[in-house]
Amino acid sequence: MSTQAGGGPQHVLTVALGLRARGWRSIVAGPPGGVLFTRFRECGVETVALRTDRVSALTVLRLVRAIRRHGVRLVHSHGKGAGLHARLAARLAGVPAVHTLHGIHYERYPAPARALYLALERRLSACTRVVINVSRAQEAEGLALHLFSARQSRVILNGVDVARLTARALDRWDARAELGLDPGVRVVGTAARFDAVKRLDLLLRALAAMPPPGAMLVLIGAGGEEQRLRALSDELGLAGCVRFAGEMAEAARVFRAFDVFAAPSRKEGLPLAVVEAMALGLPVVATDIPAHRETLGLSAGLVDGTVEAFAKGLVEVLDDADLQLRLGGENRTRARSEFDARAMLTELESVYGDVLAV
User: Fold this and answer.
1) Cα(303)–Cα(313) distance, rounded to whole angstroms?
2) How many angstroms separate the Cα of 10 from the Cα of each of 109, 192, 245, 313?
3) What are phi and psi of 23, to 5 degrees?
4) Between residues 225 and 6, the one the model is more confident about
5) What is the pLDDT of residue 5?
6) If 0-12 CB within 10 Å is exposed, 13-18 middle and 19+ buried, where does residue 251 land?
7) Which has more confidence, 72 or 49?
8) What is the pLDDT averaged over residues 314-338?
9) Model pTM?
10) Which domain covers residue 38, as residue numbers?
11) How does DSSP assign 82-105, residue by residue?
12) Is residue 280 part of a domain?
């Protein structure tokens, strides 16, 4: 798995802590440089430093040794690189493998790389006992692409530890102080990997299209798109209205600083940051894509993926305090009833039990 700040690694931390509380022993292997690698250790999760983010036969062999040294009975991988190394290592070590797909992203690859990725996922599924999909929309796509069989697939919606999330979240004023924001300014915020699929450029353009008084935009995260986004912010004359807040191991701690959480992605598996924002009672404006529909339900916050529609959606919510309260309340109720980590952990334990019983 990756250990950079993001939904996938944060999900793994929630799973590791939740399973430990239920009597399981979890050992997390991943690159040591990410901000969440330190967070795992701070939380007392056993870790193994491995460069699973780089394709390497040596990484597979080291993972095999770690599996045998620690007496691992089941390997559960998350993400592309980790999914390759872990499933090969599990096969060599003779233990069953489970893999979670956190989104199926391949469309922007060049044609040869796209074909290679899909072919590799199909081959790896042959040595995977269960493939976990984080949304029904993702399962449907994976089945259509023949990445796994219907018999292998289990849908387990991403969940958040609502009690822990609520307890650790700063209140509105402390969160704004931590981000260096004026208490009275209108704030649109998001937390995402700076990748083209997240379409943060759409969010910048929507901010520029909003009529006065506009809003302050907070972007939490990092990634390969950062320089381009900073340049676009300057080009659009937004330099004083955009705060690049950097990576945060627990970004949701400051979500209450936002009046609206924005999710402009082109595609998602099931967006954990959106679920966290919902659980904290924030209104969400999001692109109308399958994963957002599945997460938010029939929400007034779903908009077309155009600059004009996104800007209009943000303005409607920012200008209407009653709408903010209604959407925030509906989101909180939905997150706590459908995306609580306890249900996710129970379903995951069921998968582990089935796999280990064979």
Assistant:
1) 7
2) 26, 12, 18, 28
3) 100, 5
4) 225
5) 60
6) buried
7) 72
8) 96
9) 0.90
10) 7-159+341-357
11) HHHHHHHHHHHHT--EEEEES---
12) yes
